[in-house]
Amino acid sequence: MKILDKKTCSHVTRIRPSLCILLILFLTVCMVSSADTNSGDTGSVTITDDWGREVILDHPAERIVFGHTAAGEGILLAGGWDKVVGRDASITNYKFYPNLDSLPVINGLNQAFTLDFEKITELEPDLVILQKKYSDRENFDVIAETLAPDIPVVGLDFLDPESADSIQKLGVLLGTSDVADEYVRFHDDTITSIREKTSSLPDTEKPHVFIDAVGMGPEQISTYGKEASFWNKICDIAGAKNVAQDLPSDFVKTVDLEWLLEQDIDSIVVQVWDKEKPEYVGYTATQPAKATEEAEVIIQEISEKDIYSHTDAVQNGQVFVQDYQLANNPKSFIGVVYLAKWIHPDLFADINPEQIHQEYLKKFIGTDLDLNNAGIFGYP
């Protein structure tokens, strides 16, 4: 054992208090650093919603409710479905949302923006998530003011095919940015692959597309006009023009037949939905094996209508069938891919819409649903 002499001991005695002070300072810095990291994970979060409103939460939301089916799918993509305590009544797809029966509804069927405020208050959510309805800021403000100040409301546009900012913002609000950002990259890469080939097309090579919209009676024809800007964007990205893009309308508009007869129509997209044809359309089709046969029937019926029979679309075999779900929710960017493939087949010979659609379902929705066993989405 080494024995310290008095001189050495005196030196150690003088240096020991300095070491203690340094150690205390070091530990203090570490504790502050740790506290800052934790506050970043659980502290307040702020975004600017798609109405331009600043939305501030004291902490990432843990209890959420939503109105509109598009918002429900957006929550899935952002990785926040386990936080849902109340839902839109029109969500019916059990293959996407396995626990629907256990979640109370906050509105009526097909009434996304007519909310049950008493039920919402009872559920005590940290956040109410609503689809931005383009022409109805006034109604949104009424909802937000009714629930203020206890329950914050955010308006996000989940229908925009060109941007997935709504999912990114939702990831911030829910504390699930890692999941949300991965989806945003997938979305943006897909749109970029289309834009790179269509952005330089001259107007003469952009076909005029008419969308025969769902939701009206068999004798009525409706479409998407100026207010339904998501359809205008779908056409623009795909390298086309929406014939009705300048028609004033509140989302879906019944078409004046004389106006329609005067239009140059190069392609027709006929929307179908599972509410009218549950056997043949969508993820929950009950007779998917007959979906192709039904799509052929739909094309034939459209082609034989007097209002359409004279068009270049019919004459040149440019009539297509599309599930409305590929336009009216976050996967509208997949609708872009189908349309681009139809109207510019040579330009997009190397792109497979079904493959992109399948990856979306498996990787980001989290379902093992096989599109080969589903109904109509895009035909042919």
Topology:
Layout: H1 6-42, E1 45-48, E2 54-57, E3 64-67, H2 69-77, E4 84-86, H3 117-123, E5 127-131, H4 137-147, E6 153-156, H5 165-174, H6 177-198, E7 208-212, E8 222-224, H7 229-238, E9 241-242, E10 252-254, H8 257-261, E11 267-272, H9 291-304, H10 306-309, H11 312-315, E12 319-323, H12 332-343, H13 353-365, E13 378-379
Parallel strand pairs: 3-4, 3-5, 5-6, 7-9, 7-11, 11-12
Antiparallel strand pairs: 1-2, 8-10, 12-13
Helix pairs in contact: 5-6, 6-12, 7-12, 12-13
Helical percent range?
Answer: 40-55%
Q: Which structural category do the helix and sheet elements fall into?
A: alpha/beta
Following the backbone from N to C, one meets helices and strands in this order, namely: HEEEHEHEHEHHEEHEEHEHHHEHHE
Largest sheet: 5 strands, mixed
The stretches of 5 or more residues where confidence is low (pLDDT under 50) are: 1-40
Number of separate strands: 13
Can you tell me the overall shape? globular
Oligomer: single chain
- Please, what is the CATH homologous superfamily of the largest domain? Nitrogenase molybdenum iron protein domain
Count, helices: 13
Percent of residues in beta strands: 5-15%
**Biggest sheet, spatial arrangement of strands:** 9-7-11-12-13
